[in-house]
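CORE FACILITY INTAKE
Project code: CF-77B
Contact: R.S. (postdoc)
Sample description: multi-component assembly, two entities in total
Requested service: structural model of the whole complex
Turnaround: standard
Below are the sequence entries exactly as provided by the requester. Do not edit them.
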Amino acid sequence: MFSKKMVLIVGGVVLITVNVILLSVTSKSQSTSAFGRVGLSFVAPFQEFVTRSVRFTREIWEHYFFLVAVSHENRELKKSLNDAIEKNTQWNELKLANNRLRDLLSFQKSLTHRVIAAEVIGKDPSVWFKTVIIDKGKADGLQKGLPVVLPQGITGQVIEASERYSKVMLIIDRNSAVDALVQRSRARGIIKGASADQCRFEFVLRKNDVQVGDTVVASGFDGVYPKGLRIGQVSDLSERSSDIFYEITVTPFVDFEKLEEVLVILHPETEALASEQ
Amino acid sequence: MRYCFYIGTCLLLMIVQTTVLSHSNAIGGIYDLLIPFVIFLSISLPVRESLPFILALGFVVDNLSGSPFGLYLTFYFWLFVGMRWIIKYLRAGNKLFLSLAVVVAVLMENILIMGTFAFLGPDGQLPEEAVKNIVSQIVWALFTGPLFLLGFLTLSKRFNIQLNGAGAAPKP
């Protein structure tokens, strides 16, 4: 009655229709059958195991590469950090040098004499003698006897000059002597080196007025240091009953432990300073 | 080549002493590092080789220092003479010799410097910090002097072996 082809078509349509109807019905209901739950309970552990294993393997794999990358990045960052620290140190050094040189420059402007800046490149090999080597010599116009100063005060004098380097005896050396005055009372004496950070102020008559805290300046009478340059401050004062002179200790304004750059006065004249420091 | 080693070591010690150590407050009054080197030269080189070298060394140090010219020249020369005399009786590698040589030499150098202060100085007085500095130098010399000497002897031996083959080290 019906051809086989017709039966197949009708059967297919019916099947699709039933399927659609069933789907429509089941899609409205979230409840699962007991069979479905059993299936879930049976399969899920395997799923979980396999999934976790895969995930674990993937994480290890990814972490390994991640760690390699992190390690590489860490190395790069450390290198960058070291570079930055080094640059920062250099920058700080430059900043400090800049400040010192600015001080020297402003001090240089206050002097009426021609000066040349020099860098301290070495110190005396012996602890007993206080000399330094500077990087300027005869080629730069230096010669024996020229005064060496800093904005803080007198530093020393050139005692030997080669073509490119010079030796400077600091005022704290035992062989150094500077004719000096107490700025306030004009009491005169000789500043001599005593120890690493102090000088003695000798031959100051007791009839003069000297007090602890007084500033001592160069008198200019020695023909080496220009008059008025600061030397130091009276830090100790004593009188011996039998002596006609004071025993005075002067602490220099210059910190000789931190000597890095100095100014050498090329043509010292017996002129006063252009401006008071 | 051997002389390059001696000159290089000498230069290194001199530079370290006048730059690095002189800027370090923590080191304090360290002794003249060239003393162990002069002792080493005196005991390990023949006279004709070591004496000119030591005199040149003294001349250079005198130029670098603010000391009366000739002080280091004099001291290094007499240190050399003293060491040559001592090694007639003691073996150069003797532990007692190594321990005391630098200390005694440091003490002698300081006595010589104090002598110049007392007799040639402007006021004939010794520095206030004299005792402190000398004690500090002797303590440093006691602990580091033998190490320096041993170091120089070992380095020199290895250097000579490398250059000339085993057993070619110079004999005084």
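Facility notes:
- Chain B touches chain A at residues 14-15, 17-19, 22-23, 25, 29-30, 32, 34, 61, 63-67, 113, 117, 121-123, 127-129, 133, 137 (CB under 8 Å).
- Confidence is low (pLDDT under 50) at residues 166-172 of chain B.
Invoice: internal transfer
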